Amino acid sequence: MAKYGIEQAMLGDDVTESERPVDRIVDLYPPYVKEGRRLLARIGYEMRCRSVYPGGKDNRHRVHLFGFETDLQATEVLFASLRLQMLEGADRLHRPAGEDARAYKRSWMLGFIREVTVRISAAQRTASAAAEEDSEAEGTSSRSVALVLADRTTVVEARLSDQCSPRLIDGGKILLAHVRRWDEPDSGETLALIDAASGQITSSVKRPESLAALDPAAKNSLTVNDAGTLVADVVGRNKILIRQIPSLRKVAEITTLMPPVDERGIGDPMTLTFFRSGDELLTLSGSRIEHWNARSGSRLSETIDARDLELGVGRPVRSHSPEGAPGPEFALNSPPHAGHAQITVYGDPVLYTIDLGTGEEDKARRVRLGRDVETAILDTSGRYAAAKTPGGMLELWSAATGRRPSRMVGPLGPLGSNDRFTGDGFTFSFTGRDGEFYVANGSSVRFQQLSDSSSFETYDFAANQYFVAATEDGKTLLRTLSGGGFGGGNGDRGRLDLIHLDPGLWKHHLCDVVGHDLTRDERLGLPSGLPEVICPA
Question: Kind and range of the H or E element at 468?
Fold first, then answer.
């Protein structure tokens, strides 16, 4: 089936009117709907399709698939067979005494899904390599198999480009986002500034038509400098447009080195970050670091290939995650030191600092964290680090230069894993205020003060939230009410809601509505610990 899908892709590449991506809604039925949805999404990913879980009670048994027709057909055929095998295998299990039957079956099915993902991925790589050899021997295609598959993948992801993370600027007053009109799907996409209070677009510009779409999981397809005056908009696999805020006037165009593509035709997402000065930009394409003047688009230093520095020697080789999504081997962090780049290597618990002038590692600024750390970032002071560990957990570390790093808080999480969402719908960052860190995840927002690790505050919600973006201080959050992610997929189209974590503001509104202090009976239906006086006379 993998071979058939690749053959159809190569045939489609040779015709003048190429096949277009389509989408379809797949309804799933009990038993074990959650596990069925996960299986379908993972199979679809390996077959170059993409999936969205629509929100709302009426859609909880559905998966919205995007892909080319031949890939969607292959996905559905595989899913029908493998789901039956999964359910039958779970029923035949010998369950140890004392184990809950449903929980034990679910655990087994998650292992089944992981193994299926690995095997389909291996079959795709084998079929791709064989097709490449046949194509070269016969001279039947002008383009490589990997490039054709990459184009098909990015065309599919174009259907999901509105899921890139929006940005909140000007203290949460303005939303910066890619916007596409659902009632006019052929009208193209715009980059827009939206007034957060009214929802009105205050400025917009049409984005270039391009097949080189973004990986919807990439968090920095829109990157804004700290001053909120420039935005870097990734419009192609290796192309960035720099625009002025608020006019959205184009000030520069940057073409980076092309990110690498794997055997399945899936490329690493390009990553980028502004320097704190605001006018300099760092980009990472695979392992190659480039340094740019964001206002002119000119290079400021020579390209540095992190592989040449032999960082992370002996680290584990990165494979596909249990969720089915590949990831880049190197990660680029916002550099706390001028004239330097900071990177991590997947599976290596070390933060490396590279001097952009010499192209060499600054070993005096190397920070080594715990052995389980997969990737990490430093705060602006360079004294604290936030680290991601297996299972989507977060740890907060003391990382001051010249001192032995130590874990201060954690693990926290898992991130994006709750009763409705998996692997998404959270945001976290350092706020830039004396080691303060926030994480908005699940049903709470936590502010942790690392200068005093015993000091923290939490805001708890009655239900799990799907957080899309936050201001730098973490006090204003963007969330979806429908739960379908930005852009949605249900009747609400992922309707967005802005919430300010300001108890004083909440108190003011409450007192305006109630008109008096809470009575004893009114307090009975509220959580304990409320102040004795809320609305003074």
Answer: strand 467-470
Distance CA 301, CA 224 (A): 22
**In this structure, how many other beta carbons lie within 10 angstroms of the beta carbon of residue 352?**
23
Token representation of residue 224? 């804004």
For residue 161, the SS3 value is: helix
Structural tokens at position 257: 């080195």
3-class DSSP state of 28: coil
The answer to whether the CB of 240 falls within 8 A of the CB of 254 is: yes
Residue 74, exposed/middle/buried by CB under 10 A (0-12, 13-18, 19+)? buried
Q: Confidence band (pLDDT; 50, 70, 90) for 475?
A: very high
Q: Is the pLDDT of residue 138 over 50?
A: yes
- Quick one: tokens of 189? 């996409």
**Ramachandran angles phi, psi of 364, nearest 5°:** -70, -20
Q: Which residue, among 214, 220, 217, 219, has the nearest Cα to 235 in the 3D structure?
A: 214
Partnered with residue 160 across adjacent β-strands are none
* Cis previous bond, 246, omega within 30: yes
Stretch (H or E) spanning 77 = helix 69-91
Give the pair of three-digit tokens for residue 347.
Answer: 């599976």
Report angle CA 362, 365, 368 to the nearest 5 degrees.
120
Pick 241 or 468 by higher pLDDT.
241
Alpha helices in 139-263 (DSSP H): 145-158
Q: In what order do the strands lie in the sheet with 375-378?
A: 375-378, 384-389, 393-398, 406-412
Q: E strands along 246-349, which residues?
A: 250-255, 271-274, 280-285, 288-293, 304-305, 330-333, 340-345
| DSSP character at residue 57 | G
Output the pTM of the full model.
0.64
- Residue 342: phi and psi, rounded to 5, are -120, 130
Q: Does an H or E element contain 52, and which? A: strand 50-52
Q: Are 289 and 341 in contact (CB under 8 A)?
A: yes
d(CA 338, CA 524): 55
DSSP 3-state of 380? coil
pLDDT at 423 over 60: no
Secondary structure of residue 131 in the 3-state scheme:
helix
- Tell me the C-alpha distance between 511 and 536, whole Å: 9
511, two tokens:
């007192």
- Among residues 157, 299, 278, the alpha carbon closest in space to that of 221 is found at 157
Please enumerate in sequence order all residues whose Cβ is within 8 A of that of 182, keeping only pairs 6 or more positions apart, or say none.
493
- Residue 282, φ and ψ in degrees, nearest 5: -110, 140
| Percent with pLDDT over 70 in the chain | 75
**What is the three-class DSSP state of 156?**
helix
Which residues are within 8 A (CB) of 211 and not within 5 positions of it... i.e. 6 or more apart? 151, 154, 155, 158
DSSP element (H, E) containing 445: strand 444-449
Distance between CA atoms of 63 and 38, rounded to whole angstroms?
A: 9
